[in-house]
């Protein structure tokens, strides 16, 4: 009786896990809350806001204040001065050892700065890359979740078919053994049946191992047990509005997050070349400065000497580098070569994306015809198996023919199941390659489950 609450809790947890992991949508929602890769991508996406703040801060006024207190000395001499109506007067001040106090405050704001312009643009482009990375991470999670979901479904269906085939072969082997005992079958027939039974047993054991590992991978991603997942329904799986492949290729080149990130990386590298070149450019800043120095102590001309100097200014500050010895020019050419390299990388990526789009489109375009052909093949295999069983009982078909018909029927059924899953995944691959994969497309595939 004491164990009843624990058993009830475990049963409720199992029911909840089943309810949450029944289809693709619940699996994806669970993966979003658990997958460390999407969590890392979310953190990078949140960093984008700080990069935009940094881009704005580059043009904000920079204010600084300083102060110093210590021991110091000073010696100054002025000749040719005029004081109290007398000309050619000489002034001397001296403090050998005294207390020095200094205070300063300044503000500076960039007005014309090609280097800051390049840096600001780089930060903005970097924030845009973070947006594209987040979009791609979401698409990758949808694909990964769907793949692991359908891996479990396919492994379970395959195991079911193989176990059914194993049961049928065991029954056939038992029947043949009985017939051989009364002289109605040969020893070779019994040996052939036993060999087929051993072979299918090995296949079942291998598939059981694969089924276990697929469930482990699914649980690692979603945190839920893969129990009684919905399979693909026997309905029309191909989209009704499948556009021309050239249209999909054009969409991919415009919307693919991967290609967009490569284009943004080129732009960032182009701004880097501008930033390097700006090392030789003139800059103009708004400046405001004020400084006060006060020194008191003893000197050669007085036992109590005091010097005080105050300076201030408001205006603009110009800085124009004259020569860098060729370093800036060399670094600029190096950066431009990197831009060229990135452009070629993008062209290669576009060709790869086009191949992926056309491959997924071609698979979807012919899916319905292939599904129909495999369905007819499955029906024909089942009819052949029924006829072969009847003929084997009368002795007009050999044991090898019967077991071969059992094998062919199972393979035809598995081929049809696998093609249904592949067709559903091809829909997601086509949308992913074209940069259009979102929760909407996942719901469309989820609607194909039963």
Question: What are its keywords?
Answer:
single chain; 450 residues; alpha+beta; Outer membrane efflux proteins (OEP); 2 domains; four-stranded antiparallel beta sheet; 11 helices; 18% strand; rod-shaped
If strands are numbered along the chain, what order do they take across the biggest sheet?
Answer: 1-2-3-4
What is the arithmetic mean of pLDDT? 86
SSE pattern: HHHEEHHHHEEHHHH
The CATH homologous superfamily of the largest domain is named Outer membrane efflux proteins (OEP)
Q: In this structure, how is the largest beta sheet organized? A: 4 strands, antiparallel
Radius of gyration: 40 Å
Count of separate structural domains: 2
CATH architecture of the largest domain: Up-down Bundle
Structural class: alpha+beta
Q: Count every beta strand, where a strand is a DSSP E run of 2 or more residues.
A: 4
CATH fold field value of the largest domain: Outer membrane efflux proteins (OEP)
Strand content: 15-25%
Distance between the termini: 39 Å
Give an overview in words.
With 450 residues, the chain is an alpha+beta fold. It folds into 2 domains: 18-58 and 114-280 and 327-446, Outer membrane efflux proteins (OEP) (Up-down Bundle), CATH 1.20.1600; 62-112 and 282-320. It is 66% helix and 18% strand. It has 11 helices and 4 strands; from the N terminus they run H-H-H-E-E-H-H-H-H-E-E-H-H-H-H. A 4-stranded antiparallel sheet has the order 1-2-3-4, with no helix packed on it. Strand 3 and strand 4 (305-319) form a beta hairpin. The model is unreliable at 1-21 (pLDDT under 50).
């Amino acid at each position: 009786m004491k164990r009843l609450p624990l058993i009830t809790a475990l049963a409720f947890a199992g029911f909840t896990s089943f309810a949450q992991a029944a289809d693709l949508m619940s699996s994806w929602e669970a993966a979003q809350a658990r997958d460390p890769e999407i969590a890392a991508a979310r953190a990078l996406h949140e960093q984008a806001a700080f990069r935009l703040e940094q881009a704005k801060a580059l043009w904000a006024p920079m204010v600084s204040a300083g102060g110093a207190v210590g021991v110091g000395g000073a010696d100054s001499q002025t000749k040719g001065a005029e004081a109290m109506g007398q000309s050619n007067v000489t002034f001397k001040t001296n403090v050998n050892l005294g207390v020095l106090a200094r205070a300063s405050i300044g503000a500076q704001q960039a007005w014309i700065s090609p280097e800051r312009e390049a840096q600001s643009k780089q930060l903005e482009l970097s924030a845009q890359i973070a947006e594209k990375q987040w979009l791609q991470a979401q698409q990758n999670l949808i694909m990964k979740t769907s793949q692991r979901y359908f891996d479990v479904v396919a492994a379970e269906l395959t195991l079911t078919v193989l176990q059914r085939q194993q049961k049928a072969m065991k029954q056939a082997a038992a029947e043949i053994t009985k017939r051989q005992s009364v002289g109605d079958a040969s020893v070779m027939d019994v040996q052939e049946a036993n060999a087929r039974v051993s072979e299918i047993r090995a296949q079942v054991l291998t598939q059981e191992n694969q089924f276990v590992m697929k469930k482990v991978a699914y649980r690692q991603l979603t945190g839920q047990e893969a129990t009684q997942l919905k399979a693909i329904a026997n309905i029309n799986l191909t989209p009704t509005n499948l556009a021309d492949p050239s249209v999909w290729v054009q969409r991919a080149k415009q919307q693919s997050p991967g290609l967009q990130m490569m284009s943004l990386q080129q732009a960032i590298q182009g701004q880097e070349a501008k930033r390097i070149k700006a090392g030789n450019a003139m800059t103009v800043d708004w400046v405001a400065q004020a400084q006060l120095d006060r020194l008191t102590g003893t000197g050669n001309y007085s036992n109590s000497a005091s010097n005080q100097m105050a300076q201030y200014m408001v205006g603009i500050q110009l800085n124009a580098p004259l020569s860098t010895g060729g370093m800036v020019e060399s670094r600029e050419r190096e950066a431009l070569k990197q831009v060229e390299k990135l452009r070629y990388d993008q062209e290669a990526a576009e060709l790869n994306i086009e191949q992926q789009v056309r491959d997924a489109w071609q698979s979807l375009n012919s899916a319905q015809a292939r599904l129909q052909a495999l369905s007819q093949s499955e029906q024909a295999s089942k009819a052949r198996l029924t006829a072969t069983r009847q003929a084997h009982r009368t002795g007009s078909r050999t044991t090898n023919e019967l077991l071969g018909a059992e094998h062919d029927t199972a393979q035809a059924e598995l081929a049809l199941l696998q093609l249904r899953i592949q067709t559903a995944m091809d829909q997601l691959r086509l949308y992913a390659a074209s940069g259009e994969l979102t929760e909407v497309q996942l719901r469309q595939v989820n609607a194909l489950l039963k």
